[in-house]
What does this fold into?
Amino acid sequence: MAKELHKGDRVSWSSHGGTAHGKVVKKVTSPMTIKGHKVAASKDNREYLVETGEGKRAAHKPSALRKG
It folds into this structure.
């Protein structure tokens, strides 16, 4: 079962520069675009919008995020 995250949860994920840290901004359950990249989220295929301390945002699948 995929983990459930909530707005404000602190998370980390693998990034091209190593490990990134930030917080969950919101759960994404419909398609959207971030920085020109399409996010194919749906109610059955949710993703999370996360933000780093520098204000950079990205969407990630729950399996890519580690809480804490």
Q: What stands out?
A: DSSP finds no helices and seven strands in the chain. The mean pLDDT is 92. Residues 29 and 54 are 25 Å apart (CA to CA). The two ends are 19 Å apart (CA to CA).
